[in-house]
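Q: What does the assembly look like in three dimensions?
Context provided by user:
Components: two
Sequences:
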Amino acid sequence: MVPIEHVIGLSAILFTLGVIGVATRRNLIIVLMSIELMLNAVNLAFVGFNRLHPENLDGQIFVLMVIAVAASEVAVGLGIVISMFRNRDSVDLEEVSLLKW
Amino acid sequence: MTVFSFLFYLFAAMAVVSALAMVLNVRNTVAAALSLVVTMISLAAIYVLMEAHLVGAIQIMVYAGAIVVLFLFVVMLLNLRQDAFAPGRQWLVKSGAALVGLLIGAQLVRLLATPLPVAPPLPEGFGGYRAVGIALYTDYVLLVEMASLLLLAAIVGALILAKRKIE
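A: Here is the predicted structure of the complete assembly.
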């Protein structure tokens, strides 16, 4: 068994990559994928901590719920992408600045 | 080094490299989505190594099988093969954002300085479909119902958003 610290460290690295993707990319689809990456990193941390407390399965149940939320988030997010592409012919985040100050 | 830890570090390296390939890929959105599939499958293998068998199987079915296919479907539908955005604009903002991300990561890694307890031995059937199913349909049955409502709301929302015109 590898130490749990290494599992949580991998989770932290993946979460950081997701944050960098959300903060630096302008392609809306890549931003959505980076959000998925962050959710996956959190799932990995849940599974790792559940391995430390195996008397119940709370961590794995939470992972299943996070997967359900991620699936619905992708469905709605890609619906937004399609309607944005239909209105503006682009998925560049710089072009949707109506709510930006 | 046992086979177990060798496999863990192998899949961990695969996950990090393919996540990097996804975030740094500025040319081809399809390739970025395929890199995301590699990350998901490596994470599923890590879940299986950590005795979370059901979660690993669902990770492959839902993430690699459904979510990333949905991404690929939309990328190809919108014909975004080439990422045509001008690179090199706003370098200052972007490097600042990357720096903030790296700071967050450094803070997360720094938290690991406090040692965690060693993983205890597992009870029989831990993480299998039987144990997870019993927990899901006794203690967490309300959560299951809420998830079904959430998925219904997501289906309706996606239909409304992507529909061309509402009569």
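Follow-up: Residues 4-90 of chain A form a domain with the Helix Hairpins fold (CATH 1.10.287.3510).
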